[in-house]
Design a protein that fits this description.
The chain is of the alpha/beta class. Helices cover 24% and strands 23% of the residues. Strands 1-2-3-4-5-6-7-8 form an eight-stranded parallel barrel, surrounded by four helices. Strands 9, 12, 14, 15, 16, 17 and 19 form a seven-stranded antiparallel sheet that branches. A five-stranded antiparallel sheet has the order 10-11-20-13-18, with no helix packed on it. α10 crosses α11 (320-326).
Length: 476
């Protein structure tokens, strides 16, 4: 059975959802040539989309969430509909279904069809076109796009509006305008297409009650560390109504690495679309250490470990680079170390390094005895990324408030009394040494603590402890 068939969830005439969508494996997809949703459709390039949907298929994805754009439709409806049809045909070619996003509140700016190549993300249709006087034209757009595909098996569901109140317009009357607009168009989309399920990708699960009575599938976004708890709360909300739950935006470095996200989604049996497939031109995938994006335009991956976790969540004993290469998405650069500095808690006395060397550029150092750093994580193995050098000293390491020991399966050293410690001395500098602190931890939340001892190896010139980040794994 194909992935396309597995996700066939067409509703009955009543509109009831016939599938829990637990098998949804997807990504938000903006082609690598596009900086925003306007450019996606204005500069439509089927050759690029065909190639990149092939990458999605190699990741064993069966869904892509794709943003439509009314302003481009309005400019040339026939051309837009032609391009939309072509996009759907390319999805079908790769046995992938589309979750089109009909409207989008992010980030409030009216779409610019002139300078769009130099703009970050733009809203659809824009805050200044949500009033009732604009509804007739927007209804025509919905009739053409949604009504024209009411029987289209290539579409898994309609996401009627992305993140309704994630906008630069924050007055109470602005928010009410958005909800009024959305409630109307949820009804209108259901009217022109009673066959496909409807959802709204809200920016926080607390907003779902605003649309609960009008959606068939509860969809939430989460880029936080309460992912499991949040999903369980949404499932509890959905259960009395017999409605399915998905998460159609998730995963972002460094707070939500794929090693954290993917096992939770698998264990909670929730369908997903992570943001985002490509490392391209969007503001989310820019820079040498992008917040999001998995695959480069040439088909290589940012980090083989991420590919491994997406395809084989929670499986232990796999070699990431081998997995990625076998999938045809090899990693060609050095190993990527998550920039976890933002989730660390430091005592006084830590100094931020501003020079080059550590990847991706964040390091803090301290040589005062008693200086500490804490990081909360969820996983079964944790590795510390730190500098090794001729001025580096000794540190104590604790897991959940207790000294890390050899029994934790780490690479820490032991002194004559059997006490374990981390020795960061090295005759040559290594900015990004990765030391395993613990393996085989029980699943769940843990705390890693590093304490500066003020002591050092005989050969070291000082006792600095210099922290770059952590790398967390999760396995059964």
């Amino acid at each position: 059975m194909s992935r396309l068939t597995v996700l066939l969830v067409m509703a009955a005439a009543s509109g009831a959802v016939a599938e829990d969508f637990a098998d949804m494996r997807g990504a938000n997809y903006v082609p690598s040539y596009a900086r925003n949703d306007v450019q996606l459709w204005m500069d439509y390039d089927p050759a690029v989309i065909d190639r990149e949907l092939g990458y999605a298929a190699r990741l064993k994805l069966n869904t892509v969430r794709v943003f439509l754009q009314f302003a481009v439709y309005e400019r040339d409806p026939a051309l837009f509909l032609q391009r939309f049809e072509n996009f759907l045909s390319l999805c079908e070619k790769h046995q992938i279904r589309m979750m089109p996003v009909v409207f989008d509140s992010c980030f409030g700016e009216f779409p610019d069809l002139v300078n769009y190549k130099d703009k970050n993300w733009m809203a659809n249709p824009g805050q200044n076109r949500l009033g009732r006087e604009h509804w007739p034209k927007l209804e025509h757009y919905v009739r053409d796009v949604v009504g024209g595909h009411r029987d289209d098996r290539r579409i898994v569901m309609w996401d009627v509006m992305n993140e309704p109140t994630c906008t630069s317009f924050n007055k109470p009357e602005d928010k009410e305008l958005i909800w009024t607009f959305l409630r109307h168009f949820l009804d209108y989309v259901k009217q022109v297409d009673p066959n496909h399920p409807l959802t709204v990708g809200v920016e926080h699960s607390s907003l779902i009650p605003q649309v609960l009575d009008k959606i068939d599938v509860l969809a939430t976004h989460n880029y936080r560390t309460d992912l499991r708890e949040d999903l369980r709360a949404v499932k509890a909300l959905a259960q009395p109504h017999g409605k399915a739950v998905i998460i159609n935006e998730v995963a972002g470095r460094p707070k939500q690495p794929y090693s954290y996200v993917m096992p939770i989604l698998a264990e909670e049996k929730v369908g997903w679309c992570f943001w985002e497939l490509m490392i391209g031109r969007t503001q989310f995938s820019q820079g040498t250490a992008p917040y999001q994006g998995v695959i480069y335009p040439d088909g290589t991956c940012y980090d083989a470990a991420e590919v491994m976790h997406i395809v084989y969540p929670g499986q232990a004993g796999l070699e990431p680079r081998k997995v990625a290469a076998e999938l045809g998405l090899p990693q060609t650069g050095p190993s990527k170390i998550p920039n976890t500095d933002r989730i660390f808690q430091y005592s006084d006395g830590w100094t931020l390094w501003t020079g080059s060397g550590p990847w991706p550029g964040t390091l803090r150092y301290n040589n005062s005895a008693g200086g500490w750093v804490d990081v909360d994580f969820e996983g079964t193995a944790v590795h510390l990324v730190h500098k090794v050098g001729p001025d580096c000293g000794l540190a104590q390491v604790f897991i959940d408030g207790k000294p890390a020991t050899a029994q934790h399966g780490g690479q820490l050293k032991a002194d004559a009394r059997g006490d374990t410690f981390l020795d960061t001395y090295g005759s040559a500098v290594d900015w990004n040494r990765r030391t395993t602190v613990a393996r085989g931890l029980p699943p769940g939340k843990h705390k890693l603590t590093i304490v500066v001892t003020g002591d050092k190896d005989y050969w070291s010139s000082d006792c600095y402890v210099q922290i770059v980040g952590v790398d967390v794994e999760y396995s059964e």
